[in-house]
Write a structure and sequence with these properties.
Two copies of one chain form a homodimer. By secondary structure, chain A is α/β, with parallel strands linked by helices. Chain A has helices at about 10-20, 30-40, 55-70, 80-95, 110-115, 130-140, 155-170, 190-195, 215-220, 245-250, 260-275, 280-295, 320-335, 340-345, 350-355; strands at about 1-5, 10, 30, 40-45, 75-80, 95-100, 120-125, 180-185, 205-210, 255-260, 305-310, 355-359. The first copy, chain A, has a seven-stranded mixed sheet with strand order 3-4-11-8-9-10-12, sandwiched between helices. A three-stranded parallel sheet of chain A has the order 5-6-7, with helices on both faces.
Amino acid sequence: MSRTVDQVRVDVPEAARWLAGRVARTPVLRSPVIDELAGARVLLKAENLQHGGSYKMRGALRSVGRLAAAGHTGVIAQSTGNHAVAVALAARRHKLAATVVLPLDASPTKIDRARAAGARVVFAGTDVQERVALAAELSDDTGHPVVDAYDHPDVIAGQGTASLELIEEAERAGTPLDALVVPVGGGGGVAGACLAAAGTGIEVYGVEPAGCDSLARSLAAGERVTVAPTPTIADGLRPSCVGELPFAIVRDAVRGVIRVDDDEIAAAFRLLLMELKVVAEPSGAAGLAGALRLAPGNGALPDRRRTVGVVLTGGNVEAAMVARLLAHGAAEAASAQGPAGATTAQGPAEATAAQGVAA
Amino acid sequence: MSRTVDQVRVDVPEAARWLAGRVARTPVLRSPVIDELAGARVLLKAENLQHGGSYKMRGALRSVGRLAAAGHTGVIAQSTGNHAVAVALAARRHKLAATVVLPLDASPTKIDRARAAGARVVFAGTDVQERVALAAELSDDTGHPVVDAYDHPDVIAGQGTASLELIEEAERAGTPLDALVVPVGGGGGVAGACLAAAGTGIEVYGVEPAGCDSLARSLAAGERVTVAPTPTIADGLRPSCVGELPFAIVRDAVRGVIRVDDDEIAAAFRLLLMELKVVAEPSGAAGLAGALRLAPGNGALPDRRRTVGVVLTGGNVEAAMVARLLAHGAAEAASAQGPAGATTAQGPAEATAAQGVAA
């Protein structure tokens, strides 16, 4: 579960020990309806209930904690939102100054939360390169280090602790995981999941929005491939390229990448809300959408006795988006057969081939 | 924590031991935003994440389990929804037949869930007397006992285990409860809470919708008072009269009853959804609405260092209701100051006197 990649040490169990008591031990949730749809036992790790509303709190606390211990007085972060909020909260906990760089189209909820945590918020364009450039400039000006959202060993180790807890809790419940499904933005979470699952025989799958599939393309090409992300409701899964360190970790460890579309993410969102009574952000719901794509009949997992773990990575979503996703479901239900219509109705062979399991 | 009321033994700790491993140990959630609004540390016991979507599962499993052990082959229940769903699920687990009597205007979600659990669903009018009469008739016809939704020692003991877990978890976290707030329908939950809190010094408050305040009026009158329930979004809190056994338990034990209106319940619903990322049904959110009424400035709890426990009793709500409550919030935010506008903007002295803490 710890691994050295080009001299970089990423130690998930060590991060888990350090984070114990510093983050919430989030619950693992289940629903008979979801099990039925997935054709498997699905265990969902509710990191939307984590401090700061996402599992990004784990990596942020771990890395900011180390920087504070090393004597730094401030930190800088850039992200589409959750990592920035998490770094702001982590910095406040360690009494460090925080500056966060957000895109111009960042979700108002995430902007408000970063500010409420006491961070200085600055905006830079809409793509990751613009944010990275401004963060580097601010770092040069202030001397404060940048905490990268995914290309950072402490962040990957921290994110991996969510998967590690899920693996342990599944084991303790007598239903050890056969597969683990994690949404992919820059790849920090899936890299952490691969490390947490190393040596266990658990198959790790990443999930990407269909038009934001840098990891799937990179795995196919054998090297990192940059994509021009297409619009998706999963605002946290839009990086144009998977991180260097995450890719080095996952390239030989991940079982595959599942591509999902916005309809599938919206259907997963509604299942989580109506069946599990929790609110996920679309990026967080993407993991369940991926797990449902693994269902028997979709070509990947033939065995209903399997146990599939899913990390619900976050829950920071606008009220307007919640209402929109629910209204979308109502419109769909009128023309299909209920909340899971999008998932099951959408599986002709072409769609499965085009959007199914890669690598 | 166990009490004998007119020869009826209600033993919460014994029910807790029996239920351990049979129900989910639901998490206790917190939010800095909610703490700020309440002027207290607020610990929320998320029974909306319980099996069956509500804490009613506890009392139903306990009572149906005993009936199964006594050799019964079927059970009958009546309720506005959650108790019926819980009894249906409990009966299925114990391989008993279940017939549930619902009102004609029952929420479609609850009807579907009762049917999905294998229960026979029959409908009777819209008030409790009609359902009680039909349940008694069905019991006479079949010989199957009625599991009352609240006037039953095993149901009260089962419901009380949610409060007991919250009390224990608060203690373990080093933040023992000063007050415990529970929504009141027929009074089973608040009676269980009073028993769970007996001898601890914890003040127990019930919460009733303003026009469905049978317990508040009964406490004032010194005897059970039937009301004509006015419409409320909290469909689970509409019984016209508090149960006989619950009233006998709570009359000298409860600290007071807090009356809340639909705007306050809706504001609490939105706080739970946006801050805690969980979906409560309006009846479940009523507890938080009550706790916010206890806030300093609303005249009851002057001390920010207090710790207040709230039982989020259930989460079985229609998608359309979720959308409606969110839309209501958006309209409100446009003319007020954000999600808590209803709670804070609504506190002139008259309103506090009319809707504040009774008894």
